[in-house]
Design a protein that fits this description.
The chain is α/β, with parallel strands linked by helices and 279 residues long. The chain is 52% helix and 13% strand. The chain contains eleven helices and six strands. Helix 4 runs parallel beside helix 5 and helix 4 runs parallel beside helix 10.
C-alpha cells in the first residue's frame, strides 16, 4: 500500500486520540501563546480602570455549570480586577444555581487580598427571578435599598458599610452583567435612564446580536466567551481558566489544520498517481 493510501485510511479513532492529546497538553504543560486583547475586551477593562476610587460597581452574574467554560474566566478576571483595585461592589443573580460558583471565586480572591465582606463587597444572592427582570431592574434602579432590603446574611442595606447613602442607580458607576445571555434590561432601564455604564460578559454564540450595543455606546465593553475571559486575564496579569481553555482550543485547531494539509497532500499525490497510470 502506497504512503498516500495509508494516510487516507487512518482509523478515525486514532485521530480522536490525537485531538484528545492536543487539547490536554495545556493542562499539564505551561504553554503560552500571544493573546492580543480585542477592542471590546479593552473597553471592559478600561471601564473598571476608570471607576473612581470608592465608587460602587454592580456585578450581576447568572452563569452556572452549563456555561462555566465560557463565563468562569470572565467572572474570575473581573473579580480579580475589582479586588486588586479595592473597588467596592455588590453582586446578585437571577439564577438560583449561580451563587455557589461566583462565591467560590470571590472568597478565594478576597483571601489573597485581605478583603472584608460588607466593606469591600456585598452579596444579595438570588434576588430577581428571571421572569420578573423588567420590573425588578426598574425597581432596583429607582430605589435600591427599598427593593433589595437585605443581603444574604440578613443585614439591612442601610446598615452595610459599603452601601451607606446608596439610593438609586446613579450611586453605581458601572454595571457588569455576566452570563450566557446578559441582562438587556440594564440598557433599557438603567443606562438609558440614569446614564450608568454597562459591560456585558456573554457566551460567544450570543455575542453577534450584541455588537450593535457596543457600536451605539449603550455598552462600553464586552467579554466574548472564553476568549474574552482569557484576554481580560492577560490584562490583569493573572492567567487562569480562560487562558487555559483558549490554549486548548488553539492546540486543537492547530492539529485540525495540520491534518487537513496532510490529507490534501495525500489526495493530490493519489490523483497524480492515478493520472500517471492511465497514460
Amino acid at each position: 500500500m502506497r504512503w498516500f493510501t495509508r494516510l487516507q485510511a487512518i482509523d478515525n479513532r486514532l485521530l480522536y486520540c490525537l485531538l484528545a492529546i492536543a487539547v490536554t497538553i495545556p493542562v499539564f504543560v505551561d504553554v503560552r501563546m500571544p493573546i492580543r486583547p480585542t477592542v471590546e475586551t479593552l473597553g471592559a477593562y478600561r471601564a473598571v480602570e476608570n471607576v473612581p476610587p470608592g465608587r460602587l460597581v454592580m456585578v450581576q452574574s447568572t452563569w452556572d455549570a452549563g456555561t462555566i467554560g465560557e463565563c468562569e474566566g470572565q467572572c474570575r478576571a473581573v473579580i480579580e480586577h475589582l479586588m486588586r483595585r479595592s473597588q467596592p461592589f455588590v453582586i446578585w443573580t437571577s439564577n438560583p444555581s449561580s451563587p455557589p460558583f461566583y462565591n467560590r471565586i470571590i472568597e478565594e480572591t478576597a483571601r489573597r487580598y485581605g478583603r472584608r465582606y460588607g466593606r469591600d463587597w456585598v452579596d444579595f444572592g438570588y434576588k430577581v427571578p428571571g421572569g420578573s427582570l423588567a420590573f425588578g431592574v426598574q425597581a432596583m434602579a429607582k430605589d435600591f435599598p427599598g427593593y433589595m432590603e437585605r443581603d444574604v446574611r440578613g443585614t439591612p442595606v442601610n446598615r452595610i458599610p459599603a452601601l451607606r447613602g446608596v439610593k438609586d442607580a446613579t450611586d453605581f458607576d458601572l454595571i457588569i452583567t455576566i452570563g450566557y445571555n446578559p441582562i438587556g434590561e440594564f440598557i433599557q432601564f438603567v443606562q438609558a435612564v440614569y446614564g450608568t455604564r454597562v459591560v456585558f460578559g456573554i457566551a460567544a454564540i450570543n455575542s453577534t446580536t450584541t455588537y450593535s450595543y457596543l457600536d451605539s455606546r449603550q455598552i462600553v465593553g464586552m467579554l466574548v466567551g472564553a476568549r474574552g475571559g482569557a484576554e481580560y486575564e492577560v490584562l490583569v496579569g493573572r492567567p487562569g481558566r480562560g487562558v487555559q481553555i483558549i490554549m486548548a482550543q488553539s492546540f486543537g485547531h492547530l492539529l485540525i489544520v495540520v491534518l487537513i494539509v496532510i490529507a490534501n497532500i495525500a489526495a493530490t499525490a493519489q490523483r497524480r498517481a492515478e493520472r500517471g497510470q492511465s497514460v
